[in-house]
Amino acid sequence: MTWQWDGIFLDNCTPTIPGHILKAITLQTEEFDFDNDGVLDTVEDAQRSYETWRPYFTRRLREELGDGVILIANSGGVLDDPQLNGISLEAIGTLWTEEEATDILERQRAVGRSPWLGIGWVENATDIDPTSSLARRLDGVYYGVKRQFPLPPPR
Ligand SMILES: [Ca+2]
User: Fold this and answer.
1) Which of 55, 76, 81, 139 could form a Cys-Cys staple with 14, CB 3.0–4.6 A?
2) Distance 46 CA to ligand 1 centre (A)
3) What is the pLDDT of residues 79-108, one digit of tens each?
4) Cα separation of 66 and 51, whole Å?
5) Which residues have CB under 8 Å from 130's CB, separation 6+?
6) Structural domain spans, the chain
7) Ligand 1 centre from 68 Cα, in Å?
8) Which residues hold their Cβ within 5 A of ligand 1, which is an ion?
9) ω into residue 55 within 30 of 0, thus cis?
10) What are phi and psi of 90, to 5 degrees?
11) pTM (2 d.p.)
12) What percent of the chain has pLDDT over 70?
């Protein structure tokens, strides 16, 4: 494979399906058959399947891309995924305290690949100080300012 990128950012690679994604799905329909077995599935089925297969997805992605490709997940919390080089957390200061974010990032660093990369996304003014403080304290952790895009309305 020829490519000009050194890595992939996996948005919404969270421990569970994020609530806003489930809401977007169920606003469109609550009758879905995501495993195509002819039997309707529930949101709980989808959640269990996602939790079971998400680690398999990152493992298979790593196997396909090789060790030289940087994989970062926008994790929304603890992933402890050994296939990743790092994770990003949104809204440190709003959703997470600086201490909670430090713990989540350090857990991922302990099990993840080298080079380690962590990212804090600033979404609110109250995130600036704790996110920049965390980036100064922890090697390999950076921060950026994220622009929010609202989900499109359901059809
Ligand atoms: Ca089904």
Assistant:
1) 76
2) 9
3) 999 999 999 999 999 999 999 999 999 999
4) 23
5) 92, 93, 97, 98, 101
6) 7-145
7) 37
8) 33, 35, 37, 39, 41
9) no
10) -95, 145
11) 0.85
12) 92
Token pair belonging to 18: 């994020």
Strand ranges inside 2-147, DSSP E: 7-10, 70-74, 86-90, 117-122, 141-145
| CATH number, span 7-145 | 3.20.20
**Residue 31 CA to ligand 1 centre (angstroms):** 10
The alpha carbon of 42 and the centre of ligand 1 are apart by a number of angstroms equal to 8
Distance CA 106, CA 121 (A): 17
Distance 44 CA to ligand 1 centre (A): 12
> d(Cα 71, Cα 80) in Å, to the nearest integer?
13
Q: Which residues pair with 87 in a beta bridge?
A: 73, 118
